[in-house]
Design a protein that fits this description.
The structure holds two protein chains of two kinds. By secondary structure, chain A is an alpha/beta fold. Chain A is built from 21 helices and twelve strands. In chain A, helix 5 packs across helix 11 (193-211) and helix 15 runs antiparallel to helix 21 (478-499). Classes of the chains: A alpha/beta, B alpha/beta.
Chain lengths: 509, 458
């Protein structure tokens, strides 16, 4: 018995015990109907070749290991960032369990979200009853100030009309008539989590600016900021606020999850915490401008704000020196506030740190994947560092994104070898890493399988990060964030240097 | 500390600077008095430690409070092709009571412990300020330990307060001469055996040199002390010639080996293409003079011709990018001229080189390479260096890690050429590696960013 009460083994060591290894090999021999080990090895080798890569890239229908999530995940994330708001998904409850576990595993924090648990009969007769009951229960049980509704595929396939159903629920007295229930149709079969994020933010603004008050705009000095779907939102939003406070800019973050996804352990459970105040959201129509930190996570929202007379600007996940410069310059121009000395010093420190370490970074070939703006921002940062982005892959990038990426790579000699892979998945990335190897891979936790398979060291930046703790508590935005990303990259490079050194196992590097 | 010994070390007839001095100046020695309150370099202990630490198979035991070993532990990237005993930090960790009661017993027990556990061919015991101040007789303990334990235990009497780092290196050499070299007669002395003095195998540079020697047919008995084994150093007296790579540290050792065992020496450098060739020819000519086969010279010429051609071919692509770039060189000794010659060969220019640790011969080489005294800088205070770089008088600083930050703050690219570097720069391959590093440093995109004002500064 490998497992006894006296000496409990964890699963890392338990399954290496002879009992288990024998059992595995017996099962393999008797039941798995496997070809010979040689045949498996030969096939595995073949899958690393250029020939296989060409077949892989000719693949049309199957997506293998996609680097994207679905619309309602983004909508739930966006909704969670408003004051005492319960994200509500109209559709099947299984999807919602996924969103909650996804967010909880990444942020190491409980994620409140309800569904109205549509079943087979609801699919036949429509989901009206689910909304009527669901709103009543959610309102009574969890006492939110707002319920932000999105949808799963199931509701979208049968074509449920959220606007009409919510109105009927109010008529039937499920919730008070003036209770805010903004909504967004978020079918997973269109776009990605970024589309859902965008739709939900726009839906919330539309509710307060049109349905509730009919566009009474009185332009002021504030600037709305839409951070976008961001796995580092906890720290990044705080960093953003710190930077803007230093500059003296007046702002409203439209969706701020920095509190609700980072609540303290002090004996009190906070289902809701922080978030954008509903009154601030109402008043956000009076802003002079609305800016999006991730262009491709807020396209519709920005269009809507523009229609309402706001100046608009968008960025590609401001990271590194030039990325942050562009953002600060725009904020300075929009607000008329100068850049304070404190930020100037932070900038100098980041430049200093890069210069200190440039010899280790120079010419490192990097493959990266993630959301479009994150990939863009990181690519720009890598070019600054003297690394060479080789494979820039984005499952959910658009044609516009591809064109912008190509222009970015063409702007630097370090981008000469760079290739942009739009709409490709991580199985494509596997072929890329075998045929045109890189020194580093940057991406989410899902990159760990590629790391093990292809031997390319992984630097974890992106969403989700499931297998490392607390990365989201440190910013990636701004000069400070650039420093953190820089350190992650350097640490990995130096760890690799240490791990692969025998006589060059040096104390000082 | 033995003043007579220090006097003797300072009075080095092999050193041209010393020969040129008046009697009274010579008596004062060559270390400049330190200025209290001003920044200063490493101490005598540090010099002895780093010059001997590369002996890979012995226990290096520091007799002092914790920090002497703690701060110097594995401080330089000297590589070993054998064991890693030399990288362990051994110390007696002297504390309050030891200082009251004396640390000799503790030292003896530490030596015995190290010998029992590791069974090294020898133990090197380094004296420090504290051990010397309380009067611990390190030499006596070592003698007793050698007799009782049957393993050579060598005292390195170079406590920090005795003087400069450079003096420490010389004292390290003295200790080898007094206790180690000549204590073992090897079974296999050969007509082409040589030693490399003051070559420390930083970043494996020996492996950029060893294959060249092997192809010519020269056998390296040992480097003193890079990647060295104790028994090889003990047999170093059977070599037929010595090459001194850093004359500051071990020229005295070379001279005394010549006096005692008749081993001729030549000073040379493996930094730079033609310098490497000159060094190899110098060695060959010493060996041939002492009766080695004449074919040695022919083989050397063949290897030199082939390797030079290969190196020049590899460097050609860099010439277009690097020609005309201006370099400020801040290092010591032999590197002050050997690197100049190497980089001039691909068209780089020199706006200055420090000569603070260079000998008169080093300086003469610089003069002949650069056509005058203009570029020689005796003292380059950081402030002045900063000014030169900030005003754009150089495109690149090459120096040790400590001046790295002056360059970076003055927005100038920098290349590490002292012991913390991570690439071997010796021999023909090493020169190509150095030029590649220079090219990378100059081409890194961060320099544009470093020099550009923040966009809001217009």
């Amino acid at each position: 018995m490998p497992q006894t009460a006296d000496k409990v083994k964890d699963h890392i060591s338990l399954f290496k015990e002879p009992e288990y290894t024998e059992m595995f090999s017996a099962k393999k021999a008797a039941f798995e109907c496997r070809p010979s080990d040689e045949a498996v090895a030969a096939q595995a080798e073949y899958s690393k070749t250029w020939e296989y890569r060409e077949k892989n890239f000719a693949r049309e229908v199957a997506v293998i290991n996609p680097a994207k999530a679905c619309q309602p995940l983004g909508a739930v994330f966006a909704a969670a960032g408003f004051e005492e708001t319960m994200p509500y998904v109209h559709g099947s409850q299984g999807c919602v369990a996924y969103f909650r576990s996804h967010l909880a595993r990444h942020f190491k924090e409980a994620s409140a979200c309800v569904s109205d648990s549509m079943t087979e009969d609801a699919a036949v007769f429509g989901g009206l009853n689910n909304i009527v009951e669901g709103l009543q229960n959610a309102h009574a049980l969890y006492k939110p100030k707002m319920i932000a509704m999105s949808t799963t595929c199931m509701a979208e396939v049968i074509g449920d009309d959220l606007s009409a159903f919510i109105a009927q629920a109010k008529e039937k007295g499920s919730i008070p008539a003036d209770f805010p229930v903004p909504f967004a149709h978020t079918p997973s079969f269109v776009g990605s989590h970024l589309t859902g994020y965008d739709n939900m933010i726009k839906g919330i603004l539309q509710y307060f600016w049109e349905r509730e008050s009919h566009k009474n705009r009185d332009p002021g000095a504030k600037i709305n900021i839409v951070p976008g779907f961001d796995g580092y939102a906890v720290a990044n939003n705080r960093e953003l606020k710190r930077i803007l406070d230093l500059m003296g800019v007046e702002y409203t973050l439209l969706s701020d999850v920095s509190e609700v996804f980072d609540t303290p352990t002090d004996g009190r459970y906070r289902m809701y915490d922080g978030g954008t105040a509903l009154d601030d959201t109402r008043a956000a129509i009076n802003a002079k401008a609305t800016v999006a930190l991730q262009k491709y996570a807020a396209e519709k929202t920005l269009d809507y704000c523009k229609e309402n007379g706001h100046a608009t600007a968008s960025f590609h996940y401001p990271i590194g020196v030039a990325g942050t410069d562009t953002f600060l310059m725009a904020m300075s121009e929009l607000s008329g506030k100068p850049i304070p000395e404190a930020l100037e010093k932070e900038r100098g420190r980041l430049v200093d740190a890069i210069a200190d370490s440039q010899a280790w970074l120079h010419g490192k070939r990097v493959a990266l994947f993630g959301d479009p703006d994150v990939v863009y921002g990181l690519t720009a940062f890598l070019l600054e560092l003297g690394c060479e982005p080789v494979h820039c892959l984005c499952t959910n990038g658009s044609a516009d994104w591809e064109a912008e990426m190509k222009a970015l790579l063409a702007s630097s000699p370090f981008g000469a070898a760079g290739q942009v892979w739009r709409g490709k998945d991580l199985w494509h990335m596997r072929s890329l890493l075998f045929t045109e190897p890189c020194d580093l891979l940057i991406g989410s936790s899902y990159g760990k399988y590629l790391e093990k398979d292809t031997g390319t060291p992984l630097v974890r930046v992106g969403f989700p990060i499931f297998d490392r703790h607390h990365h989201h508590r440190f910013p990636t935005f701004g000069y400070q964030g650039g420093l953190r990303v820089l350190v992650s990259i350097l640490d990995r490079i130096l760890e690799v240097a240490d791990a692969s050194s025998d006589i060059s196992y040096d104390l000082t590097r | 500390m033995n003043q007579a010994k220090i006097q003797e070390l300072f009075n080095e007839p092999g050193c041209a600077t010393n020969r040129a001095k008046s009697d009274s100046a010579r008596k004062k020695g060559c270390s400049k008095a330190l200025t209290p309150g001003a920044a200063a370099g490493g101490c005598c202990f540090d010099g002895a430690k780093i010059s001997l630490q590369p002996i890979v198979d012995v226990v290096h035991l520091v007799h002092g409070p914790i920090a002497c070993e703690g701060n110097s532990w594995d401080g330089r990237n000297s590589w070993s092709t054998g064991g890693d005993l030399y990288r362990r930090g051994f110390t007696t960790d002297l504390s309050n009571l030891d200082i009251v009661h004396g640390g000799e017993r503790k030292l003896y027990k530490a030596i015995r412990h190290a010998v029992e556990i590791h069974k090294p061919p020898a133990v090197l015991v380094y004296q420090t300020c504290v051990g010397a101040l309380i009067g611990d007789d390190v030499a006596g303990v070592c003698k007793a330990a050698t007799e009782r334990l049957g393993t050579p235990v060598i005292p390195i009497d170079a406590p920090g307060f005795a003087g400069s780092k450079s003096l420490g290196a010389r004292l390290g050499g003295e200790a080898l001469l007094q206790h180690v070299i000549g204590t073992i007669e090897p079974p296999d002395p050969g007509p082409t055996d040589i030693n490399l003095l003051a070559e420390y195998n930083v970043n494996g540079e020996l492996d950029q040199i060893r294959p060249l020697l092997a192809r010519i047919g020269i056998r390296l008995r040992t480097a003193i002390t890079g990647d060295a084994r104790y028994r090889d150093i003990a047999a170093a007296h059977t070599a037929r010639a010595n090459l001194v790579v850093c004359s500051q540290a071990f020229v005295t050792l070379a001279r005394k080996m010549k006096e005692r065992w008749g081993i001729p020496y030549v000073e040379g450098s493996f930094y730079g293409i033609s310098d490497t060739s000159v060094a190899l020819r110098g060695l060959v000519s010493l060996l041939v003079d002492r009766g080695a086969d004449l074919k040695l010279a022919a083989r050397a010429e063949a290897v030199i011709a082939e390797e030079e051609a290969k190196a020049w071919k590899a460097l050609a692509p860099y010439r277009a990018r690097l020609a005309g770039k201006r370099v400020l060189l801040y290092t010591g000794g032999v590197k002050s001229w050997s690197v100049i010659a190497a980089l001039q060969e691909i068209g780089m220019e020199f706006v200055g080189t420090s000569v603070r640790k260079s000998t008169a011969e080093d300086k003469e080489r610089i003069r002949s390479l650069t056509g005058g005294d203009a570029v020689m800088i005796d003292q380059l205070p950081p402030r002045e260096m900063y000014r030169m770089l900030r005003d754009g008088e150089a495109d690149l600083l090459m120096s040790g890690g400590r001046t790295q930050f002056v360059a970076l703050k003055a927005r100038t690219p920098w290349v590490e050429i002292n012991q913390e570097r991570h690439h071997g720069y010796a021999g023909y391959d090493g020169m190509v590696a150095l030029v590649r590093q220079i090219d990378q440093a100059l081409a890194n995109p961060i320099w544009d960013q470093v020099r550009r004002p923040a966009p809001w500064e217009g």
